Amino acid sequence: MTYYACVVQKMTWRRIADDISSRIESGELIPGSRIESEEDMAARLGVSRHTAHRALHELQRQGLLNRQRRWGTVVADRVKSTEKKRIAYLADFTKNRFQADILMHIEHALEDGMRMVVATSKNDPEREAENLMSLRDEVDGIICYPAEGDVNAATFYALAQSGYPLVLVDRAPRGCEELVVLTDNVQASQQAVADLIARGHQRIAFFGNTNTMAQSNRERFVGYRAAVEELGYTTRPYERWIPVDLGGNSESMVQAISDAFIAMRALPEPPTAAFCVQDWLAVGLLEACVADGIEVGVDFGIATYNDFGPTFFRHPGRLDRVVQQMEDISVTAVERLCAQMSGEKVVPGPVRVPAKFYPAQDSKEILASSLRAPWSATAP
Question: Which domains occur in the chain, in start order?
Answer without folding.
Answer: 13-81 (1.10.10.10), 84-183+327-355 (3.40.50.2300), 185-319+360-368 (3.40.50.2300)
